[in-house]
Design goal:
Blueprint (H helix, E strand, L loop, with lengths): L5 E5 L35 E11 L2 E11 L2 E5 H10 L5 E2 L3 E4 L4 E9 L2 E2 L5 E4 L2 E5 H7 L3 E4 L3 E5 L2 H10 L12 E2 L41 E2 L16 E4 L2 E10 L2 E11 L2 E5 H10 L4 E3 L4 E3 L4 E10 L5 E8 L2 E5 H6 L4 E8 L12 E3 L5 E3 L25 E3 L6 E9 L8 E6 L5 E5 L5 E6 L2 E9 L4 E10 L6 E7 L7 E3 L3 E5 L6 H22 L7 E6 L2 H10 L4 H10 E6 L3 E5 H4 L4 H14 L8 H17 L5 H21 L17 H16 L1 H10 L6 H6 L3 H16 L5 E8 L6 E5 L5 E5 L5 E8 L4 E2 L5 E4 L9 E7 L6 E9 L2 E10 L5 E5 L3 E2 L3 E8 L2
Helix pairs in contact: 6-10, 7-8, 10-11, 11-13, 12-13, 12-16, 13-14
Length: 871
């Protein structure tokens, strides 16, 4: 028989810990995309429907159908799109993703005439430029605005404006950061957050499922984090009728301005798709718009009305055609239009005004005093949210200490809500979207739990049983300044048979020992990563993909024997791989290894292979594996824009390649066996693909992939250089980096309100230092020298410490805290001149490592916000 094309992930790719380092904990799983209901003996799930109004600015826009299901209220996405369209805002819905090109949002800005700040002039940011309140601006200088809808006439006497400014009668304001608009030049805003794909989750040790009365139907996990909706039903409701629930997607996506705003639950009923009311309220709130839901009616204070092709005339001059925005009784026009008309106007945008701005993200990035990139991680509009390092803090002081930007933590009270028969769980695992810090809570007998969390965006990752886990990946938000939050965690019914059907894949048991929780989790992972991998590569499946799970290496090996592989080939796959893609429609997964790996990375990797196989059967192994690794790492990051986290993940992988380059046994690009046991060849492939994408862009790479089967010179025709030239450049870059020596590094630590007052740093040379005097709410630059000495800023006491041993060129930053994980810390590598955070490590009460995973923050209140090499 003709053997199908197989692309397998070596086991070593996922068990990546350096010798002697703590192992990376079992990976992550995600709550998936749409999970249609399978036929079942039990009745189809029902929602409750009622019709109610949507009002805007006190006027009824339309009566729409609302559904209530699982404690959450929904209304139709089509109606939402029509509402936005009525206000001039376009959108697109593809079945799982709502996309808005942009949405006007308030920003904090200094508006100046002839250099003097004009008070009381609000500013919006839309389509890449600042819009100013023309009415308020005109009122300051004795002018006026005539608003005719499609024609706006503005009188701004320039001479009067300059006179007023020269007399100083306008309130002067302090200069903000760079970002001034001159004649339409766009201001500097925080960089957009692009959340491309799926999440990661340190999965706990594997646990055996103790499932009570598993249900035959499964319709997906849902997440309710809805402080706007009390747990008591609002009353009175209008007349209601039952409505069938045809499917559920706990992770629908909302994209604004090219970036992911948030994942949201989406309900399917009667051929219509429904969007969570509370999430729409949070979306409006992010853009400075208040709304109210009373259980039967959604009341919106106001919406910005975008009017295209408006003729704007300034001081009687020629009219400029542009978009205008009307909001809360004011007319907003682009600042550049006024500047072009001769008005001595500058607009300096300092930051977004709303909380959790889509596109703009938390607080963006700021260059620190050591040249490293610090990143704010909050999602509530505060200065870096939970942990410091935001641009608002500015550079560190000369003594290496900075304050501010670390918000008080919030207590979250949660409960479990089962969508079918219940099953016993012991813990809930929650992860911070940006830092990947994990928080664990014990579940009480009544199904409730409590967590104290920094403000920000989170995902409920897993419900943990005695010997297994059900992975959920359900999003929720913890607002800054809240006294407390309520959280409902919906748990899916487990499949009774050995199969789960999703939108794009069927996940089946390959033997009788595969667990129900594994089936549910892998299906969710696959459906979660599929939209991002497909949209990023521009590829789609040819038919439904079959994912088969195997509980042991023996049954996994037997599968390949039955498919016609030789015993030697089957042995190699069973010993060295986590999963294998076989052609365009088959993925096989070895669950004991999968449970130790990052499941999102693994599944995105194999899915990429399957999709690539639909357009190319001749793709070189280096390109096939390199592209799959890039998609897998994006899935593992799951929208985090923390450069310290991404750097740690990438350099942890690449250090293996550099080590073998240094030892002299690294083969040229494309000339090693993908399952070579000497080193992980695929990580070298990823290094090459990462460089190719960085230089030419992913669209060019995909053009190359599509051309391979019909163009023998596809590489040179696409990129303009022969492959051999590119391969030589890749090897030269690897050799150059491998020749670098370690110079030490500066580590910026941010201490949260509940954080430690003392840390211990163990060096690779066997020394240990105790650093005491840390203050909550402060960030500190700690210098770790290549000779194993440590320097700290003034006010921090540094003394000798014992009880920690050096481990294979690793630095460790550790501290003691309370609770069931009383010892926590970071393992930090400094290799080839690149320092990076390798793992966060949590120890149990017996002193044994309980969890180890990539992260830049710890639940005990310490985070790494930058790490930069010493020069």
């Amino acid at each position: 028989m003709v053997l199908p094309l197989v692309a397998a992930i070596p086991t070593a790719a996922w068990a990546q810990s350096p010798p002697g380092a703590l192992p990376v904990s079992p990976a992550i799983a995600a709550a998936g995309a749409i999970a249609p209901l399978a036929p079942a003996a039990s009745a189809q799930p029902q929602a409750v429907r009622h019709d109610g109004p949507v009002t805007v600015a006190g006027k009824t826009w339309r009566t729409v159908p609302y559904l209530t299901y699982g404690g959450t209220n929904y209304f139709g996405i089509w109606y939402l799109q029509q509402l936005l369209r009525a206000y001039g805002i376009t959108s697109d819905w593809n079945g799982s993703r709502l996309t808005l090109p942009d949405f006007p949002r308030p920003v904090t800005a200094q508006v100046r005439l002839s250099g003097v700040t004009v008070p009381g002039v609000d500013t919006l940011w839309y389509q890449g430029q600042a819009y100013v309140d023309a009415s308020a601006l005109a009122a300051q200088v004795g002018g006026g605005v005539s608003d005719g809808g499609q024609a706006v006439s503005i009188t701004l006497p320039v001479a009067q404006a300059e006179k007023v400014a020269s007399q100083g009668t306008l309130t002067s304001g302090a200069a903000g950061p760079a970002g001034t608009v001159h004649a339409g030049v766009a201001p500097i805003l925080p960089a957009p957050v692009h959340r491309d794909t799926a999440p990661t989750n340190p999965a706990l040790s594997r646990r055996a499922a103790a499932v009570a009365d598993p249900a035959p139907a499964r319709h997906g996990a849902t997440m309710v984090a809805n402080p706007a909706e009390p747990r008591r039903a609002a009353a009175p409701h209008p007349a209601t009728v039952p409505a069938p629930v045809d499917g559920f997607q706990p992770n629908g996506e909302v994209y604004v301005g090219g970036g992911l705003w948030r994942r949201v639950p989406v309900l399917y009923s009667g051929g219509t798709t429904f969007f969570g009311v509370w999430y729409f309220q949070q979306f409006l709130s992010a853009f400075g718009i208040h709304s109210n839901w009373d259980g039967s009616e959604l009341a919106i204070d106001d919406l910005p009305l975008v009017t295209p092709h408006t003729a704007v005339q300034v001081n009687g001059g020629a009219a400029a055609t542009t978009e205008t925005v009307r909001f809360q009784g004011a007319v907003y026009v682009p600042a550049g239009v006024l500047a072009d008309a001769g008005v001595p106007l500058t607009v300096e945008v300092t930051r977004d005004a709303g909380a959790g701005q889509p596109g703009a993200g938390p607080t963006g990035t700021g260059q620190d005093a050591t040249g490293g990139q610090g990143v704010g991680s909050g999602a509530d509009g505060t200065d870096g949210g939970a942990y410091g390092g935001s641009s608002e803090n500015g550079a560190m002081s000369p003594r290496g200490v900075a304050g501010g930007g670390i918000a008080p933590w919030v207590t979250v009270h949660g409960r479990l809500v089962y969508d079918g028969p219940s099953y016993p769980l012991q813990q809930i695992s929650v992860r911070d979207v940006q830092t990947h810090a994990h928080y664990y809570a014990d579940i009480a007998q009544d199904g409730t739990f409590s967590l104290t969390l920094p403000p920000g965006d989170y995902e409920v990752f897993a419900g943990i049983a005695a010997d297994d886990a059900i992975y959920l990946l359900q999003p929720f938000h913890v607002p800054s300044g809240a006294a407390g939050e309520n959280l409902d965690v919906h748990l899916p019914a487990l499949p009774a048979a050995g199969r789960v059907s999703g939108i794009h894949a069927d996940v089946a048991a390959g033997d009788g020992q595969v667990r129900a929780m594994d089936l549910a989790s892998v299906s969710d992972i696959f459906e979660h990563v599929y939209p991002a991998v497909s949209s990023t590569t521009g590829l789609t499946e040819q038919g439904r993909i079959q994912v088969t799970l195997y509980s042991s290496a023996q049954t996994y090996r037997q599968h390949f024997i039955q498919e016609g592989y030789s015993a030697e080939e089957a042995d190699s796959l069973a010993e060295n791989s986590v999963a294998a893609e076989e052609g365009t429609d088959q993925i096989s997964v070895l669950m004991p290894e999968f449970s130790k790996a990052d499941g999102l990375n693994v599944m995105a990797h194999e899915l990429t292979h399957a999709l690539v196989a639909t357009v190319s059967r001749t793709i070189p192994s280096w390109a096939n594996e390199g592209l799959a690794w890039e998609m897998g790492i994006a899935a593992e990051l799951d929208g985090s824009v923390d450069p310290v986290l991404e750097g740690g993940i990438r350099w942890f992988n690449w250090s293996d390649t550099l080590t073998h380059q240094q030892s002299g046994d690294l083969k040229p690009l494309g000339q090693a066996d993908a399952l070579d046991a000497t080193y992980n060849v695929e990580l070298q492939d990823d290094w090459a693909m990462h460089q190719l994408i960085a230089q030419y862009g992913l669209p060019a790479v995909m053009r190359y992939v599509r051309a391979l089967d019909h163009d023998p010179d596809a590489f040179s025709h696409t990129f303009g250089i022969p492959f051999d030239t590119f391969a030589n450049r890749v090897q030269a870059s690897i050799a150059q980096r491998a020749a670098q020596t370690d110079a030490g590094f500066t580590l910026r630590l941010a201490v949260a309100p509940n954080g430690p007052g003392m840390v211990v740093i163990a060096t690779p040379q066997g020394r240990a230092y105790q650093l005491s005097g840390l203050t909550p709410g402060q960030s500190y630059d700690i210098v770790c020298h290549a000779d194993g000495t440590v320097s700290a800023p003034g006010g921090i006491r540094v003394g000798a410490a014992g009880g920690m041993d050096a481990q294979d060129d690793m630095w460790f930053v550790m501290f003691q805290t309370n609770g069931s994980l009383p010892r926590q810390g970071f393992a930090i590598a400094d290799a080839f001149g690149v320092p990076y955070v390798a793992e966060a490590v949590l120890y149990d009460a017996s002193g044994q490592p309980a969890h180890a995973y990539p992260a830049t923050a710890l639940p005990g209140g310490l985070s790494v916000t930058s790490i930069t090499p010493l020069r």
